[in-house]
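User: You have something folded?
Assistant:
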Amino acid sequence: MSVQVETYEVTEVDNVTGQVECEVEALELIESLGLAGQQKLLGKNDDTGEAVRCPYRVMNRNERFVYEQLLPIKTLLEQYESGCIPLRVLQVAAHAKDVFPYLWVWHAKDKKDPLLVGAKEKYVNEFFLLARWDDVLEPFSTLEKRAVKLFRDAYKTKLLEIQSKVATTISSIGNMADSVLASGEKSLPTFYE
């Protein structure tokens, strides 16, 4: 059985070498133009110590919502053991380690459609899309529909639990009044966490 891999390098990445095309020129322009924002995206090559550009894009809010719904388990790459990582994803990880100190695999218990993510800090709100893989890679629009359904179902379940607690509390309000009189406690019950 074959595995499909999708990577998220910017279009300037040479598919053969994995290097950003015209990287030296781009680095010189970033420096000469004083592009502080672009400088924050630079990493250092572990072997040479030279600056390298980040060829990956930041995950947008919509993507983050979808992937966090479908892939709630976040494991550091070094500790990921839920399945075999394809060679192409390992190559992406090897290149990305110069830019990102933290590489995560986001995945689900069913081991479907894992996602390789880069981060500049261990616990941040900004993640970079690196690669995903599976036997069949569903289009993002399909993943989005699944994530919305999962979110709605979980939210509805939580609301039904709250509704049940409210109904139970309403039916026992007389006993609660007696309890308040006896104890002097005046706090109301909470129905959500």
